[in-house]
Amino acid sequence: MTKHELKQLLAAADDAINREDFDALMEFYAEDATLVISPGRTATGKEQIRSAMGRIAEHFNHGLHVSQGAIIVIEGGDTALVLANTIVRATQNADSPFATDRKATYVFRRYPDGKWRCVIDNSYGTGLL
Protein backbone atom coordinates (compact mmCIF):
# COMPACT_ATOMS: atom_id res chain seq x y z
CA MET A 1 0.00 0.00 0.00
CA THR A 2 1.33 3.43 -0.96
CA LYS A 3 1.80 6.04 1.73
CA HIS A 4 -0.63 8.95 1.63
CA GLU A 5 1.10 12.01 0.19
CA LEU A 6 0.47 13.92 3.44
CA LYS A 7 2.52 11.33 5.33
CA GLN A 8 5.35 11.94 2.87
CA LEU A 9 4.91 15.69 3.24
CA LEU A 10 5.11 15.45 7.05
CA ALA A 11 8.30 13.38 6.77
CA ALA A 12 9.83 16.03 4.49
CA ALA A 13 8.80 18.81 6.88
CA ASP A 14 10.30 16.92 9.83
CA ASP A 15 13.53 16.52 7.88
CA ALA A 16 13.64 20.28 7.19
CA ILE A 17 13.06 21.01 10.90
CA ASN A 18 15.79 18.56 11.92
CA ARG A 19 18.25 20.15 9.46
CA GLU A 20 17.08 23.67 10.44
CA ASP A 21 16.32 24.41 6.80
CA PHE A 22 13.51 26.82 7.60
CA ASP A 23 13.37 28.22 4.07
CA ALA A 24 12.46 24.75 2.77
CA LEU A 25 10.07 24.29 5.69
CA MET A 26 8.06 27.36 4.70
CA GLU A 27 6.98 25.53 1.52
CA PHE A 28 5.04 23.22 3.86
CA TYR A 29 2.81 26.06 5.13
CA ALA A 30 -0.02 28.11 3.66
CA GLU A 31 0.54 31.89 3.68
CA ASP A 32 -2.05 32.29 6.46
CA ALA A 33 -1.06 29.19 8.46
CA THR A 34 -1.02 29.11 12.26
CA LEU A 35 1.58 27.25 14.33
CA VAL A 36 0.94 26.44 17.98
CA ILE A 37 4.29 27.34 19.56
CA SER A 38 3.22 26.32 23.05
CA PRO A 39 -0.10 26.25 24.89
CA GLY A 40 -1.55 29.76 24.61
CA ARG A 41 1.08 30.97 22.09
CA THR A 42 0.70 30.90 18.32
CA ALA A 43 2.45 32.27 15.26
CA THR A 44 0.43 33.16 12.16
CA GLY A 45 1.83 33.61 8.66
CA LYS A 46 5.07 32.33 7.22
CA GLU A 47 7.18 35.19 8.56
CA GLN A 48 6.09 34.61 12.17
CA ILE A 49 6.34 30.83 11.82
CA ARG A 50 9.87 31.01 10.41
CA SER A 51 10.94 33.30 13.25
CA ALA A 52 9.33 31.00 15.82
CA MET A 53 11.13 27.97 14.36
CA GLY A 54 14.46 29.75 14.77
CA ARG A 55 13.68 30.53 18.41
CA ILE A 56 12.58 26.94 19.02
CA ALA A 57 15.86 25.65 17.53
CA GLU A 58 17.81 28.00 19.81
CA HIS A 59 15.77 26.90 22.83
CA PHE A 60 16.80 23.31 22.15
CA ASN A 61 20.44 24.22 21.49
CA HIS A 62 20.07 23.28 17.81
CA GLY A 63 19.55 19.63 18.76
CA LEU A 64 15.84 19.25 18.01
CA HIS A 65 14.76 16.04 16.31
CA VAL A 66 11.13 15.58 15.25
CA SER A 67 9.53 12.50 13.67
CA GLN A 68 6.11 10.96 13.28
CA GLY A 69 4.90 7.59 14.48
CA ALA A 70 1.40 6.46 13.55
CA ILE A 71 -0.51 8.85 11.27
CA ILE A 72 -4.18 8.90 10.28
CA VAL A 73 -5.38 11.11 7.42
CA ILE A 74 -9.07 12.04 7.17
CA GLU A 75 -10.00 13.91 3.97
CA GLY A 76 -13.09 15.94 3.21
CA GLY A 77 -13.07 17.85 -0.08
CA ASP A 78 -9.94 20.00 -0.26
CA THR A 79 -9.31 19.75 3.49
CA ALA A 80 -7.57 17.04 5.51
CA LEU A 81 -7.28 16.44 9.23
CA VAL A 82 -4.10 14.61 10.15
CA LEU A 83 -3.78 12.91 13.53
CA ALA A 84 -0.23 11.92 14.34
CA ASN A 85 1.92 10.53 17.09
CA THR A 86 4.65 13.19 16.99
CA ILE A 87 7.94 12.26 18.62
CA VAL A 88 10.07 15.15 19.85
CA ARG A 89 13.62 14.62 21.10
CA ALA A 90 16.21 17.26 21.98
CA THR A 91 18.91 18.34 24.36
CA GLN A 92 18.00 21.55 26.16
CA ASN A 93 21.48 21.69 27.66
CA ALA A 94 24.32 19.26 28.28
CA ASP A 95 22.65 17.54 31.21
CA SER A 96 18.97 17.92 30.33
CA PRO A 97 17.64 15.68 27.56
CA PHE A 98 14.08 16.38 26.43
CA ALA A 99 11.75 13.72 25.09
CA THR A 100 8.01 13.71 24.57
CA ASP A 101 5.43 11.97 22.43
CA ARG A 102 2.48 14.13 21.44
CA LYS A 103 -0.87 13.36 19.85
CA ALA A 104 -0.65 16.08 17.21
CA THR A 105 -3.38 17.50 15.00
CA TYR A 106 -2.66 19.13 11.67
CA VAL A 107 -5.07 20.65 9.17
CA PHE A 108 -4.12 20.77 5.50
CA ARG A 109 -5.76 22.42 2.50
CA ARG A 110 -5.27 21.29 -1.10
CA TYR A 111 -4.70 24.31 -3.35
CA PRO A 112 -5.64 24.69 -7.03
CA ASP A 113 -2.05 23.76 -7.99
CA GLY A 114 -2.73 20.33 -6.40
CA LYS A 115 -0.33 20.87 -3.51
CA TRP A 116 -1.27 20.30 0.10
CA ARG A 117 -0.21 23.01 2.56
CA CYS A 118 -0.54 23.06 6.31
CA VAL A 119 -2.98 25.66 7.62
CA ILE A 120 -2.91 24.60 11.29
CA ASP A 121 0.14 22.99 12.90
CA ASN A 122 -0.73 21.87 16.42
CA SER A 123 1.81 19.39 17.74
CA TYR A 124 0.09 19.55 21.14
CA GLY A 125 -3.19 18.23 19.76
CA THR A 126 -5.92 17.84 22.35
CA GLY A 127 -3.28 18.36 25.05
CA LEU A 128 -4.21 22.03 24.70
CA LEU A 129 -7.44 21.22 26.53
Topology:
Layout (H helix, E strand, L loop, with lengths): L4 H15 L2 H4 L3 E10 L2 E4 L1 H14 L5 E12 L2 E15 L2 E15 L5 E7 L7
Parallel strand pairs: 1-6
Antiparallel strand pairs: 1-2, 3-4, 4-5, 5-6
How much helicity do the residues have?
25-40%
Please state the structural category.
alpha+beta
What is the CATH topology?
Nuclear Transport Factor 2, Chain: A
Largest sheet: 6 strands, mixed
Per CATH, the class reads Alpha Beta
Order of helices and strands: HHEEHEEEE
Strand order of the largest sheet: 2-1-6-5-4-3
Low-confidence stretches: none
| Intertermini distance | 35 Å
Tally of individual domains: 1
Give the number of helices.
3
Whole-angstrom Rg: 14 Å
Based on Cα principal axes, name the global outline.
globular
What CATH architecture would you give? Answer: Roll
Overall number of strands: 6
Strand content: over 45%
Average pLDDT across residues? 93
Descriptive overview:
This protein has 129 residues and is an alpha+beta fold. The protein is globular, with a radius of gyration of 14 Å. The chain has one domain (5-124): Nuclear Transport Factor 2, Chain: A. The protein has helices at 5-19, 22-25, 46-59; strands at residues 29-38, 41-44, 65-76, 79-93, 96-110, 116-122. The N and C termini lie far apart (35 Å). Strand 3 and strand 4 form a beta hairpin. The protein has a six-stranded mixed sheet with strand order 2-1-6-5-4-3, with helices on one face.
Properties at a glance:
Nuclear Transport Factor 2, Chain: A, 6-stranded mixed sheet, 129 residues, 6 strands, alpha+beta
